[in-house]
Amino acid sequence: MLAVEGVQRPFDPDRIVVSKTNLKGHIQYANRVFLELAEFDERDVLGKPHNLIRSKAMPRCVFKLLWDRLLAGREVFAYVVNGTKNGNHYWVFAHVTPSRNGKGEVTSFHSNRRYARPEAIEQISALYEELLDVEKSYNNRKEGLQASSDRLDELLAEKGMDYDEFVFTL
How far apart are CA 22 and CA 122, in angstroms? Predict the structure, then answer.
């Protein structure tokens, strides 16, 4: 079973976690739901890298996929487990989109995160555990990231779908 930090924080299915970052991933805005769930105060997060809530239970290759797509101007859907200020965690179903100016240039990123169904968490946890095992089997982090990215690509190819399509089957 996927090892995650602390206890799972409760998340009301009717609430939405919202944040906005600049192009480097530094938080420009976080709504109250984000702050409450992540156990932070606004002053703790504004201007800080969004990965301050990154859980060690998240495979690096999923974030590589996310950033590759965002920097290419594409939206991304993903299940994410985040860590909190107090050492706990929470699962979300994230929809991250590039924000554009009047010229169509990407200027920032906007993320809405919703409740992640327990059945989906169970399924994605097994995949994330496998990808983390691949990453950890390499002494070189770069090689581990590449190997886990390759494994994710293989699994998706076997299913005949991309990551966004896959997450919608969970």
Answer: 32
Tokens of 108: 């920032």
Q: What is the pLDDT along the chain (170 residues), one digit of tens a residue?
A: 567 878 999 889 999 999 999 999 999 999 999 999 999 999 999 999 999 999 999 999 999 999 999 999 999 999 999 999 999 999 999 999 999 999 999 999 999 999 999 999 999 999 999 999 999 999 999 999 999 999 999 999 999 998 889 999 99
Vertex 116: Cα angle to 110 and 117 (nearest 5): 155
- Amino acid (one-letter) located at 8: Q
